[in-house]
Amino acid sequence: MKNSKEMVMKGIFFLSACFSIVALLLIVIFIFANGVPFMLDYGFFNFIFGMEWTPTNAPASYGIFPMIIGSIYVTIGAAVVGVPIGVLTAIFMAEFCPSFLYKILKPAVNLMAAIPSIVYGFFALQVFTPLIRQYFGGNGYSVLTASILLGIMILPTVISLSESALRAVPRTYYTGSVALGATHERSIFRVLLPAAKSGIISSIILGIGRAIGETMAVVLIAGNQAIIPDSLLSGVRTLTTNIVIEMAYATGEHREALIATAVVLFGFILLINSIFLYFKNKEAK
After folding, report:
1. How confident is the model at residue 160 (pLDDT cuts 50, 70, 90)?
2. DSSP-assigned letter for residue 54
3. Residue 89 within a domain
4. How far apart are the two ends of the chain, measured CA to CA in Å?
5. CATH classification at residue 229
6. For residues 158 and 83, is the Cβ–Cβ distance under 8 A?
7. In this predicted structure, what is the pLDDT of residue 92?
């Protein structure tokens, strides 16, 4: 009886794992089967490095280079805002935070992760956009606004995973460092932080992945201009916002171009993850 229960549970676990893999394969097959043929017909370099996105013109142009640059700018901006704040907050919560304050901060961070992205976007539209328009110039719909918002949105991911990585480091690392004469701060930054580096890097990867894939919040505050931004105050359109804005009415070649944009976005995320993992594994050796 016991063995039969174990076999049933093993089967359930196996099916769950297979479901995840099959779902991923179906997504990959769909976007590549519909997007790659268009890229080959239109011209890979014309599509990737084209400067104009005018699907309603005759003939239509489907160049996504401005949106690739826009996605890179916004992602880098989000990392600059969110990663340092997230990692430092995780260090504070793991090693410096009083217990009474931790009971408030931890639920607050978890609550941030549960807030829908459209709520973040509306908040930025009503708060960040007027402030940036007033104090920095422009119309407020810009790379800067999107970067600040996405930096805030990736905070729960970076904070939670970084804190878990720090708490997973054996406490003997810290006590040994203190016993050798190091201060509390030096033990944390020179011993615990390097030991937790693998988990912290993973949190950064996942945070950047969210920043790249975020759509609804960015639609509201980025300006949605398919141009290469020449400053932080310029409007921008990312790859994800391009898809969500036009997919509702796109047909034929236009729809295929949007699916091809998803292929590029997928490759973009894989490239970033591969670069991070390469350096992570290189340092581990």
Report:
1. very high
2. E
3. yes
4. 46
5. 1.10.3720.10
6. yes
7. 94
